[in-house]
Design a protein that fits this description.
The chain is an alpha/beta fold and about 525 residues long. It is built from 15 helices and 24 strands.
Length: about 525
């Protein structure tokens, strides 16, 4: 079984280098004085110092090998490689090598280089992306940018990272407007430009926003992994099959003191890929931030380097991306790159369409473009439920306990907590209404039951049809029409129908809520 190998570049006196390497190996694994480390712990748990080598700049390369059994997922890996050592002065994580058995625990990008090219149907040249900005512009302005860019043949249009909406309803309206504009353009051109919505919201709203974008047909998102949490991004990508474009916000804290932090290629190449990032945006050198050509090259190389079975990602330089620099940039980064051109494209004389055509024309002069039919079966995009994205002021009731404008839906996703014969109707709160709650109607067929679960948010239950049984922390309550029940936070509960006719009830919950979990 291979080891997890971390190489740290440390600035210290030569006489102290070996001792510092041992101190790091101990600190990252057991965090106790040497006197408390017995032979077994030293052999099985404590990191092994494999090499201490001088570097030309006066630092030392400390190569430490860790037991891969100390890692189950991304948080443990990050903690093992750079947890406590991040608080040591003048120590930088320079390399991270992972054995196959560790890499096998990560899915990585859902698409990667080839998957994105298949979605777009574009091969042979760098991809061109632009940005919906600035914040404060009208939604119609964003729609026009997206549509003009797509009509001119652009590949990817994304929200700006600071494009934040006042509410879920305004997010959904804006995203629907931009996505539909790109879809219309795609129908005209026969190509497939991708629109990526910015998902940068508090954690208790994150799932709602992601699912809202997917319901509209959006295939991918822009997300800042260091702001939202690397393992949060990994979880979203894994569960939803998202195409993820990673934004570099907050990464500068690791880079600008070159004696400390994490090498850009390790963080925005290797670690971002482990978190499921398909496209890694980074600040191009020569722009408004102080990144060197070597640092930018290291990110691009790590994004595309072999990493077990994990797909290579597309590096995406941004900032300072003028038309005049295209030849130099493409020579540096090569064909498998996304060029993110924001202000230089949006502000170019002639408008967005003409500017896009100019950039693409130059790329085609530099690279042999090959176009094929784009793949249309990309990341899961679910049909828009009736009424979602459109506030309905009146939902007429039918005698069979259904409502005009709200079709019944499945109770839960396949593979979640066990249940039987339950149907859900989303009535208010999920279609863009400005409410703090969601009103749903559930119906359980004879012999059916809801999942046994618990969660932080509370339930208010109003029985309206038939009879049912509610159990809350082992206590049993019989419910008949117009009975009202309350489920407190983190109490295990379940609803069952032990009768011979349908049992129906309204359920009121917080609109922004946590996901149910097993007892």
């Amino acid at each position: 079984m291979g080891a997890i190998t971390a190489v740290y570049h440390a600035l210290c006196p030569a006489a102290d280098a070996a001792g510092l390497a041992r101190a790091i190996a101990v600190e990252q694994t057991v965090e106790v004085p040497e006197s408390l480390i017995d032979a077994r712990i030293d052999m099985e748990i404590v990191g092994k110092v494999a090499a201490v080598d001088p570097l030309p700049d006066g630092r030392f390369a400390l190569r430490i090998e860790y037991n891969p059994q100390l890692v189950n997922g991304l948080p443990e890996l990050l903690n093992l490689a750079y947890g406590n050592v991040s608080m040591m002065e003048k120590v930088r994580l320079a390399e991270l090598e992972l054995p196959p058995e560790v890499l096998a625990r990560f899915r990585g990008p859902n698409y990667g280089v080839e998957g994105i090219r298949e979605l777009l149907g574009v091969h042979g040249r760098p991809l061109l992306a632009t940005v919906l900005k600035p914040r404060g512009s009208a939604d119609d302005r964003f729609r026009a940018i997206a549509e003009e860019f797509a009509l001119a043949g652009g590949d990817i249009v994304k929200d700006d990272n600071n494009l934040i909406d006042e509410s879920f309803a305004t997010f959904q309206r804006r995203v629907a407007l931009c996505h539909e504009a790109v879809a219309r353009a795609n129908e005209q051109t026969g190509r497939q430009c991708l629109y990526l919505a910015n998902i940068s919201v508090p954690l208790d709203r994150l799932e709602r926003y992601v699912e809202g974008a997917l319901r509209l047909g959006v295939k991918g998102v822009l997300i800042p992994p260091l702001l939202m949490g690397l393992d949060v991004v990994r979880d979203l990508a894994d569960r939803h099959g998202l195409l993820v474009m990673g934004h570099p916000a907050f990464t500068g804290t690791f880079f600008h003191d070159r004696r400390h932090g994490i090498e850009p290629g390790v963080l925005m190449g290797t670690i971002y890929r482990l978190a499921g990032v398909d496209i890694s945006i980074f600040v191009n050198h020569g722009g408004r931030f102080d990144y060197s050509p070597a640092e930018c090259a290291s990110i691009a190389a790590a994004a595309r380097a072999p990493l077990g079975r994990i797909r290579p990602a597309l590096p995406a330089p941004a900032g300072g991306m003028s038309f005049e620099r295209l030849e130099d940039m493409t020579r540096e980064y090569g064909a498998d790159t996304v060029l993110v051109v924001g202000g230089a494209l949006l502000g170019r004389t002639g408008g967005v369409g003409k500017a896009t055509e100019a950039y693409l024309g130059r790329l085609r002069e530099l690279f042999p473009e090959r176009l094929v039919a784009p793949r249309r079966d990309g990341a899961p995009s679910r049909p828009l439920p009736p009424g979602v994205g459109e506030v309905v002021h009146h939902l007429p009731f039918r005698a069979d306990f259904t409502w005009e404008g709200r079709a019944p839906a499945g109770y839960k996703k396949p593979g979640e907590l066990p249940y039987r014969d339950v149907v859900r109707h989303e009535l208010l709160g999920e279609a863009g209404e400005e409410t703090a709650f969601s009103l749903r109607y559930f119906e359980i067929a004879a012999g059916g039951f809801s999942s046994e679960e618990k969660h932080v948010h509370t339930h208010a239950i109003i029985a309206v049809r038939g009879r049912g049984i509610l159990t809350v922390d082992g206590k049993r309550f019989d419910l008949k029409p117009n009975d009202i029940a309350y489920v407190p936070p983190l109490t295990v509960h379940q609803l069952r129908n032990e009768g011979g006719e349908p049992f129906g009830f309204y359920c009121i919950v917080d609109r922004e809520r946590d996901r149910p979990r097993a007892p």
